[in-house]
């Protein structure tokens, strides 16, 4: 976002910028969805990696995220360039992530533990590239507008494209992969190119984005992390969002198993995903309206309850069949749409509130912590599901040596994809009642902020320093 002048109308964001920002969602959704959906299944059913080991492999690279994401957030907060503080990092991520993502599914002639090591290392590289891009990307909406409800409207476009990209990853990726090493290799290359295109498009598409954020970032990383931890709205939002993300992660990891062993059709993974993302394409305006009507907290409670309720209803699938399962997933999808839209809108509010109160640019630190925890709990979802499968006696295999699963494994598949994510999500709903950053509270903070800390204009020295700097 080019910091060359004050934003003339900090409440308005043009359609071109909204779409330019939103197209980056193809990176966010595809990288978040495909490993969560397919990587565990790829290791256990193509590379013959034991389920418990595969779950650990998926989680371990996320420990690095706790370091990488906070560092990238701090660096982007302190960046001064003619492209603004965030956009250079979008470009850096585009150099690393697409290639490492393709290599993750390259399918070398390895099985068992050696295959697990290879996947773990390439997943670590991909997670690093994702951190370079996603942390500054998430910080940008809070700096585009000062209006509480405009942020929800701005992010509506992002959620629509997230729904489309989830459909791509949930429908096209399994179809391309096809259960073979060669298919997974092709899928990795195809979606690596999709990642590259979306990351570059968001970099160029946000060139004219308004900037209303704070112009300074002071203090050490330790001091800023401490400031983030003392923000009550941020910590409660991080907690409730983590519960929601964990529930979604468990459900995503279990979807291929649910299709294969409960519905009895591996191709049902595609139709189940269509049932999940279809509501996201049509219900975003409804959730924007509900956020205004109920405030964001009330709408978040409603969306989490719908997600959990739809998951629990899936328990009757063995008795009521595939059509019933798809209808339940549509209920889950309506709730999921609200969760996705509202948590990022509320994160932008938290960043804006901290900027008003502190007078500093710390959005990168907040989104760094957020993204690190988000990635960790999403990967933990697959790990938890792997442990549930292992506890149920699930037998790993490869395409040339199929096995018959015991009845206990079928029960583990069912419980892991229904009751477990539903209960986790309901815990997030309970935490939402403690979140208290409403529109009225944010407006009050802005009204009491000193004019020189409002962050809507550059000082002469800051402007000249920016113009002298390169990206």
TrEMBL record:
InterPro entries linked: MFS_2, MFS_trans_sf
Keyword NADP tagged: no
Coiled coil: none
GO cellular component term of the entry, any: plasma membrane
Keyword Metal-binding: no
Classification via Pfam families: MFS_2
Regions that span the bilayer: 39-60, 88-107, 113-133, 154-177, 189-213, 234-259, 271-291, 298-317, 323-342, 363-388, 408-433
Assigned keywords, A-Z: Membrane, Transmembrane, Transmembrane helix
One GO term of the biological process aspect: carbohydrate transport
Name listed for the protein in its UniProt record: MFS transporter
């Amino acid at each position: 976002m080019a910091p060359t002048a004050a934003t003339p109308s900090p409440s308005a964001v043009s359609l071109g910028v909204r779409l330019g920002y939103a197209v980056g969602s193809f990176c966010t959704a595809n990288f978040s969805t495909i490993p969560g959906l397919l990587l565990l299944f790829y290791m256990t059913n193509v590379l013959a990696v034991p389920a418990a080991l595969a779950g650990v492999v998926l989680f371990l690279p996320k420990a690095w995220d706790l370091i990488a994401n906070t560092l990238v957030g701090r660096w982007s907060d302190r960046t001064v360039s003619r492209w603004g503080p965030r956009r250079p990092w979008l470009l850096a991520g585009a150099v690393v992530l697409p290639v490492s993502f393709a290599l993750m599914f390259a399918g070398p002639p390895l099985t068992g533990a050696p295959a697990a090591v290879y996947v773990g290392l390439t997943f670590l590289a991909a997670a690093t590239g994702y951190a370079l891009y996603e942390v500054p990307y998430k910080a940008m909406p809070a700096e585009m507008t000062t209006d509480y409800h405009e942020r929800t409207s701005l992010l509506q476009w992002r959620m629509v494209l997230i729904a489309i990209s989830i459909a791509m990853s949930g429908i096209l990726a399994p179809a391309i992969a096809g259960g073979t090493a060669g298919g997974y290799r092709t899928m990795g290359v195809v979606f690596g190119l999709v990642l590259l295109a979306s990351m570059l498009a968001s970099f160029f598409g946000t060139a004219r984005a308004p900037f209303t954020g704070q112009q300074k970032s002071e203090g050490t990383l330790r001091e800023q992390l401490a400031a983030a931890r003392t923000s009550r709205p941020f910590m409660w939002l991080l907690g409730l969002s983590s519960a929601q993300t964990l529930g979604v992660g468990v459900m995503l990891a279990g979807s291929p198993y649910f299709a294969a062993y409960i519905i009895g059709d591996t191709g049902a993974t595609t139709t189940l995903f269509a049932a999940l993302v279809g509501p996201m394409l049509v219900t975003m305006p409804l959730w924007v309206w509900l956020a205004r009507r109920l405030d964001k907290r009330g709408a978040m409670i409603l969306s989490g309850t719908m997600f959990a309720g739809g998951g629990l209803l899936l328990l009757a699938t063995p008795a009521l069949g595939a059509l019933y399962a798809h209808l339940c997933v549509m209920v889950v999808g309506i709730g999921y749409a609200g969760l996705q839209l509202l948590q990022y809108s509320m994160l932008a509010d938290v960043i804006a509130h901290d900027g008003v109160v502190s007078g500093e640019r710390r959005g990168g630190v907040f989104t760094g912590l957020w993204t690190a925890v988000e990635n960790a709990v999403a990967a933990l979802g697959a790990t938890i599901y792997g442990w549930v499968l292992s506890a149920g006696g699930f037998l790993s295999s490869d395409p040339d040596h199929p096995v018959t699963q015991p009845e206990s494994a079928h029960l583990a598949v069912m419980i892991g994809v229904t009751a477990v994510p539903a209960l986790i999500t309901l815990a997030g709903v309970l935490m939402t009642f403690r979140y208290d950053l409403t529109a009225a509270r944010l407006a009050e903070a802005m009204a009491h902020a000193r004019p020189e800390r409002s962050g809507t204009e550059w000082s002469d020295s800051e402007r000249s320093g920016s113009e002298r700097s390169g990206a």
